[in-house]
């Protein structure tokens, strides 16, 4: 039996406190579990702005720093510099059961980030997929890894010239959290903290959310991994710097 380690309602109330002027926290898709019914939450900042990004967290319940990052993003006005240009759709916690019980999977033992190509995916995945009712320039998924000594990331997209973004992010982060410079990370080849993905995603049997995003025409997806060994605040700060760097990069790039 899992025991409860965190409270998702605390997260929702922190977020609600910061959301005003029509940017409400939308609760959708009641998720029935044996312990309680969970709501899946979503909110949009800068509604109607020209450039669009999707930021999601908490798909793996034992990776709470992404959820903390979203709270901190609002509480510390990190949207301020982008509020005229970006519409951000934010999914603050895709696996609320896992978050509360500190487990990677959902209440059915499913790793949600393996079901994005499934014919009848779990409710949480359907909820995430429903956010792709618009075209995103960028999607950012916030994860963490208990095995890594430092930050690393996955990136993929339609424009190879955007690959320099990965390095820009790592350069911006390295004073806050060291980068994992290993040649192999999590079973993949890696270089300077960036995972090298050779697989052709279109022929894979299963997709993580990032590949679903590509299938929906997203220009670039970033999957960011902080190192769990660092304090929560440090992990959140690393994610915040990455978000900031990516949004700045595309603000410049798209207007030219
Ligand atoms: Zn993860």
Mean pLDDT score, rounded?
A: 96
* Extended strand count: 10
Radius of gyration: 17 Å
Largest sheet composition: 7 strands, mixed
User: CATH superfamily name?
Assistant: Zn peptidases
Specify the overall morphology: globular
Q: How many domain modules? A: 1
First-last Cα distance: 55 Å
Helix content: 25-40%
Instruction: Count every helix, treating DSSP H or I runs of 4 or more residues as helices.
Output: 7
Q: According to CATH, what is the class?
A: Alpha Beta
At the third CATH level, what is the topology name? Aminopeptidase
Report strand %: 15-25%
Cofactors, ions and other ligands in the entry: zinc ion
Side-by-side strand order of the widest sheet:
1-2-4-3-5-10-6
Overall SS class: alpha/beta
Annotated CATH architecture: 3-Layer(aba) Sandwich
Return the string of H and E elements: HEEEHEHHEEHEEEHEH
Q: Uncertain regions: pLDDT < 50 for 5+ in a row?
A: none
Topology:
Blueprint: H1 8-18, E1 26-32, E2 37-45, E3 51-57, H2 65-75, E4 86-91, H3 96-101, H4 123-130, E5 138-145, E6 152-157, H5 164-173, E7 184-185, E8 188-191, E9 194-195, H6 209-215, E10 220-227, H7 232-255
Parallel strand pairs: 3-4, 3-5, 5-10
Antiparallel strand pairs: 1-2, 2-4, 6-10, 7-8, 8-9
């Amino acid at each position: 039996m899992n025991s409860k380690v965190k409270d998702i309602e605390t997260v929702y109330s922190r977020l609600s406190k910061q959301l005003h002027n029509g940017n409400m926290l939308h609760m959708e898709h009641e998720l029935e579990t044996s312990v309680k019914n969970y709501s899946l939450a979503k909110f949009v900042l800068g509604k109607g702005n020209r450039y669009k990004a999707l930021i999601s967290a908490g798909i793996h319940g034992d990776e709470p720093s992404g959820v903390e990052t979203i709270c901190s993003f609002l509480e510390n006005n990190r949207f301020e510099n982008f509020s005229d240009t970006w519409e951000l759709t934010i999914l603050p916690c895709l696996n609320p059961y896992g978050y509360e019980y500190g487990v990677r999977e959902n209440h059915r033992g499913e790793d949600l980030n393996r079901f994005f190509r499934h014919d009848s995916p779990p409710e949480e995945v359907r909820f995430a997929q429903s956010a792709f009712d618009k075209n995103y320039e960028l999607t950012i998924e916030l994860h963490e890894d208990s095995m890594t000594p430092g930050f690393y990331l996955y990136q993929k997209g339609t424009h190879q010239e955007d690959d320099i973004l990965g390095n820009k992010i790592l350069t911006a982060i390295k004073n806050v959290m060291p980068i994992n410079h290993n040649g192999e990370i999590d079973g993949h080849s890696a270089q300077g903290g960036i995972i090298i993905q050779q697989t052709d995603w279109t022929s894979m049997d299963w997709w993580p959310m990032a590949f679903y995003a590509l299938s929906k025409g997203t220009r670039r997806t970033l999957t960011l991994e902080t190192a769990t060994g660092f304090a929560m605040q440090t992990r959140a700060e690393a994610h915040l710097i990455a978000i900031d760097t990516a949004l700045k990069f595309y603000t410049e790039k798209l207007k030219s």
